[in-house]
TrEMBL record:
<dbReference type="InterPro" id="IPR002397">
    <property type="entry name" value="Cyt_P450_B"/>
</dbReference>
<keyword id="KW-0560">Oxidoreductase</keyword>
<dbReference type="InterPro" id="IPR017972">
    <property type="entry name" value="Cyt_P450_CS"/>
</dbReference>
<keyword id="KW-0408">Iron</keyword>
<keyword id="KW-0479">Metal-binding</keyword>
<keyword id="KW-0349">Heme</keyword>
<dbReference type="InterPro" id="IPR001128">
    <property type="entry name" value="Cyt_P450"/>
</dbReference>
<dbReference type="Pfam" id="PF00067">
    <property type="entry name" value="p450"/>
</dbReference>
<keyword id="KW-0503">Monooxygenase</keyword>
<protein>
    <submittedName>
        <fullName>Cytochrome P450</fullName>
    </submittedName>
</protein>
<comment type="similarity">
    <text>Belongs to the cytochrome P450 family.</text>
</comment>
<dbReference type="InterPro" id="IPR036396">
    <property type="entry name" value="Cyt_P450_sf"/>
</dbReference>
């Protein structure tokens, strides 16, 4: 009998059956090869919480700026996400100061009203797509309101944003790289227009006022504003979709959310985080996890696997909304921890809180459908209803 070909553990994650729930596959990788050299990626792959945390918090030995390992980086990719200290420090401080200067309570109050109105409208329908009709539009409105600019049309923005996300998996599918670089450049050009004619309020207004004294190059500034728009939108919309799927497909979870709002969102992030993988490059020979990584070696961190590591989380496959403490790596750690994490958490808490409070009968009508992305995990479609279950078939 002919022996079956060996299954690649990374490419296998893209199979629809595994894409729905990659965590058992992560567990097998973590148990058998927690530090794995993957030939196709040309990278070390880490799946343990302790190893991933060590890399995230050590920017001296593991770089986000691949120029430190001799790589040439296209100009559209130089941003707060890809620079390391000391270049990274100036742009991060400028953005953080801008974040702190905003009236986030006023923004949240306005968001609450928008969420209530949109849910009331959707509740009148037999069912709706939670991704395209709730998570994506609410996330885009929220992020652009924080920036102080008008939201672009979803028909223009969403496909471009998805092209950028697809490019994050270019190590496996190289054909996705060039379209993603082009999409980043278009978004950076769009963001640059904000600086030419800045609004009077919001993060863009603050950045425009203080840019001249920041020492940040204009290209990096434009790219970083693009990154805030894109990462803020993708983190928020994908987190909201994943979290809603976790709640609405787990018996009793929506009701439990009302009792544990302070810890529930963190647990939903740990349970099914939008950021499943991150990458660094080793800049000096380093021993980690029992192997020696050479200078120039890429390192891929499977944060989704780390968030389900039983050495760090008791019963990781269970959704425990009262879990505390919860040191998940869903939004990274260290110098490159996600700037927009607090916005994504607030948005998700607001939407799910409104669902649990006002629509406790909300339920899934169909299984959530996932996009074929491994770096950023998210839904393509999720049909739900806010109406009580009468036992009759619900049609979209």
């Amino acid at each position: 009998m002919e022996q079956a070909a060996a299954v690649d553990p990374i490419l296998d994650l893209a199979r629809p059956s595994i894409l729905r729930n990659p965590y058992p596959s992560y567990a097998r990788m973590r148990e058998t090869s927690p530090v794995l050299w993957h030939e196709l990626l040309g990278s070390w792959v880490l799946t343990r919480h302790a190893d991933c945390l060590a890399v995230l918090t050590d920017s001296n030995r593991f770089a986000s700026d691949w120029r430190r390992a001799g790589e040439e980086i296209p100009a559209p990719l130089l941003s707060v996400q890809t620079l390391d200290p000391p270049e990274h420090t100036a742009i991060r401080h400028l953005l953080l100061d801008g974040f702190r200067a905003q009236d986030r309570q006023a923004l949240n109050d306005g968001l609450e009203g928008q969420i209530a109105d949109l849910l009331a409208e959707l509740a009148r329908r037999p069912s709706f797509d939670l991704v395209g009709e709730l998570a994506e539009p609410v996330a885009l409105r929220f992020v652009t309101a924080f920036l102080g600019v008008e939201a672009p049309g979803l028909d223009w923005f969403v496909p471009m944003s998805r092209t950028v996300v697809d490019g994050m998996d270019a190590g496996l599918w190289p054909e996705k790289h060039e379209p993603a670089v082009a999409a980043r450049a278009r978004l950076a050009e769009y963001a640059g227009g904000w600086l030419a004619d800045p609004p009077k309020e919001g993060l863009i207004a603050y950045v425009a006022e203080h840019a001249a004294d920041s020492g940040v190059a204009e290209t990096v500034l434009r790219n970083s504003l693009r990154a805030v728009l894109h990462a803020g939108y993708e983190s928020a919309s994908r987190l909201l979709g994943n979290a809603a799927a976790g709640l609405l497909t787990t018996p009793g979870a929506l009701e439990a959310f009302r009792a544990t709002p302070a810890t529930a969102v963190d647990e939903l992030i740990r349970y099914d985080a939008p950021v499943q993988a991150d990458a660094r490059v080793c800049v000096t020979d380093t021993e980690l996890g029992g192997v020696t990584m050479k200078a120039g070696d890429p390192v891929t961190l499977f944060l989704g696997a780390a968030n389900h590591d039983p050495l760090r989380f008791a019963h990781p496959a269970e959704l425990r909304l009262d879990r505390a403490p919860n040191p998940h790596l869903g939004f990274g750690r260290g110098a490159h921890a996600c700037l927009g994490a607090s916005m994504a958490i607030r948005l998700t808490g607001s939407v799910l809180g409104a669902l649990a409070r006002d629509y406790p009968q909300a339920r899934a009508v169909a299984e959530p459908e996932h996009r074929r992305n491994l770096t950023l995990r998210g839904l393509d479609r999720f049909e739900v209803t806010l109406r009580p279950d009468t036992g009759e078939e619900v049609r979209p």
